[in-house]
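Budget justification aside, the reviewers requested a transparent look at the raw inputs and outputs of the sequence design task funded under Objective 1. We therefore reproduce one unedited record. The lines immediately below are the structure tokens for a 90-residue chain.
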């Protein structure tokens, strides 16, 4: 399990806690490729980590901070054909 899967599960549990007015301490991630469900413990520290990440993201939004995106490099890898690459960048 990677961090993004874990954080997404934590955020979803936090949303359910707000909607259902209950505490959720266990979640499950199902991996279809291996047909296996993994139990994940959700702690207060995990939820605080999510809160700090969301606060940081909101601060970037509030102060209109824009990150530099390196699309040329990514597009060159996605479209090795020069023709497609030039058409996309027109």
């Amino acid at each position: 399990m990677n961090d993004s899967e874990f954080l997404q599960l934590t955020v979803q549990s936090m949303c359910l806690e707000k909607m259902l007015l209950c505490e959720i301490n266990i979640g499950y991630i199902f991996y279809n490729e291996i047909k296996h469900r993994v139990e994940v413990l959700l702690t207060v520290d995990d939820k605080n980590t999510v809160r700090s990440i969301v606060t940081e993201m909101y601060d970037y939004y509030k102060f209109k901070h824009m990150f530099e995106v390196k699309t040329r490099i990514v597009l060159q890898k996605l479209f090795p054909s020069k023709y497609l690459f030039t058409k996309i960048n027109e």
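The longest strand covers residues 26-31. The beta strands are 26-31, 36-41. Computational costs for records of this kind are itemized in the attached budget.
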